[in-house]
Write a structure and sequence with these properties.
Elements lengths: L6 H12 L11 E5 L3 E6 L2 E6 L3 E2 L2 E2 L3 H15 L7 E9 L5 E3 L4 E10 L12 H4 L2 H17 L8 H17 L7 H27 L3 E3 L9 E4 L2 E4 L7 H4 E3 H14 L3 H15 L2 H6 L3 H21 L3 H22 L6 E6 L5 H11 L7 E4 H8 L15 H20 L4 E4 L5 H14 L3 E7 L2 H10 L9 H10 L7 E4 L4 H9 L2 H4 L3
Parallel strand pairs: 13-15, 13-16, 14-15, 16-17
Antiparallel strand pairs: 1-2, 2-3, 3-8, 4-5, 6-7, 6-8, 9-12, 10-11
Helix pairs in contact: 4-9, 5-6, 5-11, 8-9, 8-11, 9-13, 11-12, 13-19, 14-15, 15-16, 17-18
């Protein structure tokens, strides 16, 4: 390797890379973007990314050797998941006359990661909220994240709590060093609340580490690092500069995405991502692991606050002020996450076609900010019991009384674990039998938490027609099944009876009029 470039030399490199004539692709012009640790030059069909010559407590790109190492590492960890994006490393060389060349034979003075350029407006942080929150896209996004985690290398260790404690301490050090942004009183509140949650989650984090839920994750999983290519969300720009930081609990990795969605005003999408992730994983350890989710979310928001301050130090004027405002907002969000709300159990029952699942999804994502209520659905539990996809129709033999008991038993078990993890839960099932309802009421009583039962009802022909119109749904109900349910009837209903004959939002409005629901804190 050649001598390490000075700051001036890197400034000269920037000027070189901003010049369209420097590229073999002969682009018309070059667009420039930067973060606190990198600079990206968009030239024609390609993007060239170089590391800034900077050093932070958590990231060191101060030497040419380090920048080369981390460029190579970034290519290595991202190419398998985004092969169409990540191309190769390109040396930037200096000729004897002092001129610079991309991929030349002279002395290497910098390294660039060459990527295929994509439409910046297809990045999820730039798409309209209505597009990002669309149910199909959220499902695809969640599946992409889950598959990423499934493919990640597992590290069976018991130091999950220690990993989180180190992150908390790093944040505290950064906050204390930025007293002009974060006041000592609020930093102390963050410390006390975070350490209390860490103590509560200590055993859970040790257990998850031993069972393989600590993996070499993406590490930087927010909307700006996800692009929609065609109809498929693609994860890119995984964290490359700290293996310890990227080797973490998968739920902590997921928490970055949840926090980003929530912070951008898309809390219902964050809730759907969480609930879909739990469905894909079908791991009881992930439900139990949510005892740490408020802490995970708070640390993620705290990290964003820390990075925003670091970026502000590189800027001036309005740009710096904007970053400092973002830091303040992220820090406030972190404190909010640390103040966890008490558990509640809501059960939604009714015959097929009354809109139980639609109502439950709306409630789960609208009653509070991320992560919101967990939503467990009997139709999905039945499909997972028989190990089939959610839209694959089951044989009538899968709907016997014995199978029904198994399904309700699975629901009850998952709800019990969720309540132990201090979560708020909504469960939807037919609940036509008194003993089915009584089991969930008794569970709430055992945990000494509020229970709210909702019974949806509508005209028989209306709900039969709704069932007929369903497509690509987990429910196997038919109009004949609806008529059978109505004929059997339901007795001893003490739950709130809800008129579900209108639109889904009219049903939601009817439910929100119930004091126990409208007064949920």
């Amino acid at each position: 390797m050649s001598k390490i470039p000075t700051t001036l030399q890197q400034d000269e490199l920037i000027a070189f890379l901003k010049d369209a004539g420097s590229y073999p692709e002969n682009p018309d012009h070059v667009d420039f973007h930067e973060t606190h640790g990198a600079m990206i030059f968009l030239a024609g069909c390609f993007a060239y990314k170089i590391k800034k010559a900077v050093k932070f407590p958590y990231m060191d790109f101060s030497t040419l050797e380090k920048r080369h190492h981390f460029c190579a590492r970034e290519l290595e960890i991202n190419q398998p998941h985004a092969p169409d994006l990540y191309q190769c490393l390109v040396a930037i060389t200096q000729n004897e006359d002092g001129s610079l060349t991309l991929g030349g034979d002279g002395t290497v003075v910098e390294w660039a990661l060459k990527m295929r350029r994509f439409d910046q407006n297809r990045m999820l942080d730039r798409l309209p909220h209505s597009v990002v929150m669309e149910k199909t896209l959220v499902n695809k996004l969640t599946e992409a994240v889950f598959k990423y985690h499934q493919a990640a290398a597992r590290i069976n260790v018991a130091d999950g709590p220690q990993r989180m404690q180190l992150l908390i301490q790093e944040l505290l050090d950064s906050f204390h060093a930025s007293r002009d942004v974060f006041t000592p009183g609020t930093v102390k509140s963050f410390e006390m609340l975070a350490m209390a949650l860490l103590e509560r989650a200590h055993y859970c984090l040790r257990l998850r580490g031993r069972r393989g839920f600590i993996r070499r994750c993406h590490g930087d999983l927010h909307l700006r690092n996800i692009v929609l290519m065609g109809e498929q969300p693609v994860l890119f720009d995984a964290l490359e500069f700290d293996e310890d930081l990227a080797t973490t609990d998968v739920l902590y990795d997921l928490a970055f995405l949840l926090m980003d969605l929530d912070q951008r005003g898309m809390s219902p999408a964050a809730n759907r991502v969480l609930n879909r992730y739990l469905y894909y994983s079908n791991a009881l350890e992930d439900i139990y692991g949510l005892i740490a989710m408020p802490l995970f979310l708070a640390i993620r928001a705290g990290v964003r606050a820390m990075v925003a301050v670091d970026h502000a130090r590189q800027l001036a004027g309005d740009a710096a002020a904007k970053e400092l405002t973002a830091a303040d907002q992220y820090f406030f969000t972190a404190l909010q996450y640390l103040q966890q709300k008490p558990p509640i159990l809501i059960a939604v029952g009714g015959f097929s076609g009354t809109g139980k699942t639609t109502l439950a999804e709306l409630l789960a994502g609208s009653l509070e900010h991320a992560p919101g209520f967990l939503h467990f659905r009997s139709d999905l539990e039945r499909k997972s019991l028989f190990n089939v996809s959610e839209t694959e129709r089951l044989d009538p033999s899968c709907y016997t009384m014995e199978v029904n008991k198994q399904v309700y038993g699975k629901l009850l078990h998952k709800v019990r674990i969720a309540l132990k993890a201090h979560q708020r839960v909504i469960v939807d099932a037919v609940f036509s039998k008194p003993e089915e309802r009584a089991e969930f009421e008794a569970l709430a009583k055992k945990f000494d938490i509020p229970f709210i039962g909702l019974w949806l009802e509508a005209d028989e022909e209306l709900i039969a027609s709704r069932v007929t119109a369903r497509t690509m749904d987990a429910s196997d109900a038919t109009p004949a099944i609806v008529h059978q349910q109505v004929a059997r009837g339901v007795s001893s209903i003490q739950w709130h009876r809800i008129d579900a004959s209108g639109t889904e939002f009219e049903t939601l409005k009817n439910v929100m009029a119930i004091p126990e629901i409208s007064n949920i804190d």
